[in-house]
């Protein structure tokens, strides 16, 4: 990665790299990263396409293209580019994690679980993937697995509030009301709006 004191210098160095070697995919990728830092999305997208034209196995470029699609609400485009990412590099955890997230948004829970399990297998410190996996298992009725994944997310990042919310729901479903309340309260302390029906159900079963 190009070393620079600020984003403008980073962009200038990336442009210089392209000028000296127009077929270098990494230089086009670096320029795209800099442009994204300045929210110049259309220009960044063009550079990312040039990056993968020059270097078809540049998985990170496909992931960024997927991210641009996601920002536009284009879930199918995000899926397509992240599939390219994992096809270009075996065991690319970020691509699997993104696929899992998008499939979850689309309600395709089994597909989400498949890719999220791969993401955490390849990167055991991928906290977002563990949190999403906890949610996916919860949606699939796999309560024990949901608890395990959410606890792993909190082990990696104690302040990961969505994991507390997922645990509150999972423990409620498991009728472990004290634990459900514990994680509900922690989520609220962190500013997360726990659904009112979940909180009231917990309190009701605690007799409060």
Description:
The longest helix is centred in the first third of the chain and has 14 residues, at 7-20. The chain starts with 6 loop residues before the first helix and ends with a helix. With 208 residues, the protein is mainly alpha-helical. It has helices at 7-20, 25-37, 41-54, 59-71, 75-88, 93-105, 109-122, 127-139, 143-156, 161-173, 177-189, 196-206.
Number of helix segments? 12
Oligomeric description of these chains? single chain
Roughly how many Å apart are the termini? Answer: 56 Å
User: Overall mean pLDDT score?
Assistant: 94
Biggest β-sheet strands, sense, barrel: none
Uncertain regions spanning at least 5 consecutive residues: none
Give a quick rundown of the structure.
It is built from twelve helices and no strands.
How are the SSEs ordered, and which strands pair?
Elements (H helix, E strand, L loop, with lengths): L6 H14 L4 H13 L3 H14 L4 H13 L3 H14 L4 H13 L3 H14 L4 H13 L3 H14 L4 H13 L3 H13 L6 H11 L2
Helix pairs in contact: 1-2, 2-3, 3-4, 4-5, 5-6, 6-7, 6-8, 7-8, 8-9, 8-10, 9-10, 10-11, 11-12
